Structures are given as C-alpha cells and as structure tokens.
Amino acid sequence: QVQLVESGGGLVQPGGSLLLSCEGARGIFNVGWHRQAPGKQRELVAAITIGSTNFNYANFAKGRFTISRDNAKNTVYLQMNNLKPEDTGTYYCNAVRGPASYWGQGTQVTVAS
After folding, report:
1. Would you state the pLDDT for residue 52?
2. What is the pLDDT of residues 50-82, one digit of tens each?
3. Which of 16, 24, 75, 99 has the CA that lies 20 to 30 A from 30?
4. Which element (helix H / strand E) includes 100?
5. Distance CA 78, CA 35 (A)
6. How far apart are CA 49 and CA 37, in angstroms?
7. Reduced DSSP (H G I as helix, E B as strand, rest coil) percent helix, strand, coil of the chain, to 5
C-alpha cells in the first residue's frame, strides 16, 4: 500500500512562492505533480523520473516551477515561484511504477490579492 500525502498549499499573493511536498513518494516511482482548477480537467504540471534523470514541465510551469526529490526522505517537491491567479487549483501528487498508479488527496493552492 502506497500512501501519498501532499502539503504546502495555501493562500498566496500574485508573485509569491510556495513549496509543495509529496511525502511517501519513494525512489522507485516516477512522480508527477498535477493540478485541477474548478470546472477544468486535471493537467500535468511537472514530472520527475526515478533517479532524477529526466524532467518534464508543462509550458506554463517552465521557468517558474521546479520539481525535485529527496529519496532519503521519500519526498518529492514542487517549488512554485512567481505565482499567478491562474495557478489556483488543487495540486495532486501521482506516483507511477509500471501499471501501478497512486494519487494523494491533494493540497489547495489559491493565488489572490
């Protein structure tokens, strides 16, 4: 059983920063951060492979967001800088290994002045 717990969300002003954490994402998983805004489909934000050998960012995340992992802590991070109101949504962690896919419960990010 794999349990993923996201944390670090909150209310932040435009231009601000947040660091999201996904605990439970062991080093044997490829991990992605996804987000879902109200009334919209869930979309990939950023992903990191096992061993941090490859990264993938959505266009809106490039230059502002950074995904990283600390395998000693079984944690994957998403550093988000220069946040915009359109970044508002629930952010989810997804750990994948072969056919197995696990999701956390999400953490809410609200960007507003």
Report:
1. 86
2. 988 899 999 999 999 999 999 999 999 999 999
3. 16
4. strand 100-103
5. 12
6. 25
7. 10, 50, 40
